[in-house]
Specification:
Elements lengths: L1 H12 L5 E7 L5 E6 L5 H10 L5 H10 L4 E8 L10 H16 L14
Antiparallel strand pairs: 1-2, 1-3
Length: 118
């Protein structure tokens, strides 16, 4: 039982980091850019793809076609938390993701993201 308490305490003390990640197909260089409020959930994205339940059809189809060995998951940037003044992590994460989408343009032949219509 002490081990269970120890693990629970360790989990509570683990710092949760938000950030931007990329899933890259190293066969055709296509990428998916995403954001998460907890970078530890990237394993969950991989699990979705392995289970065939990803909502991104293009990515899911190519995962099935090329196999998991053709994909790498990378953290592109960790959201820097501000301790002074007002800080809305959700809004800041959205801005950071938009910045990366603008920079990398992962649409059409270049990636798996859908271009947002304005």
């Amino acid at each position: 039982m002490d081990r269970k308490k120890e693990l629970k305490q360790l989990y509570k003390e683990t710092k949760i980091e938000a950030g931007i990640y990329q899933i890259k197909n190293i066969q055709n260089q296509k990428i998916f850019i995403g954001s998460t409020r907890n970078l530890k959930t990237l394993k969950g994205r991989q699990f979705e793809l392995e289970a065939g339940t990803s909502t991104n059809r293009m990515l899911q189809d190519e995962w099935k076609e090329y196999g998991k060995e053709a994909f790498v998951f990378e953290v592109l940037e960790v959201l820097k938390q501000k301790n002074d003044g007002y800080f809305n992590a959700k809004d800041e994460l959205k801005k950071l993701e938009e910045s990366w989408l603008e920079r990398l343009q992962p649409y059409g032949e270049r990636g798996y993201n859908k271009e947002k219509t304005r």
